[in-house]
Amino acid sequence: MDEGKSLQGMIESFLFIAGDEGLTIKQLTTVTEQNEANVRQALAGLLENYDGQVERGITLKQFGGSYRLVTKAEFADS
Q: What is the per-residue pLDDT for 55?
């Protein structure tokens, strides 16, 4: 499996578990045992995947210093 995709999957899982609290870059580097550059690259890849697939109901958002998985606006009222 591609290491970048594997890191994206790990981050996605941790963000799902974190729920509304989300996780900071520092927290993500700690739990994934990756450096900040790798974590930022994986987050960018996740965002590209979520926003590039219109059928996906979730996306990645940054609120203050933490990242969260959230419902896309177009599905929020569904």
A: 85
Q: What is the pLDDT of residues 37-61, one digit of tens each?
A: 999 999 999 999 998 988 889 999 9
CB atoms within 10 A of CB 42: 23
Two structure tokens written together for 20: 């509304």
Q: What are phi and psi of 19, to 5 degrees?
A: 60, -135
Residue 46: both structure tokens together: 């996740």
| Other C-beta atoms lying within 10 Å of the C-beta of residue 62 | 13
> Which residue type occupies 54?
V
Helix axes 25-32, 36-52, angle to 10 degrees: 100
Query: Where is 52: in which H helix or E strand?
Result: helix 36-52
Query: What CA–CA distance (Å, rounded) separates 11 from 9?
Result: 5
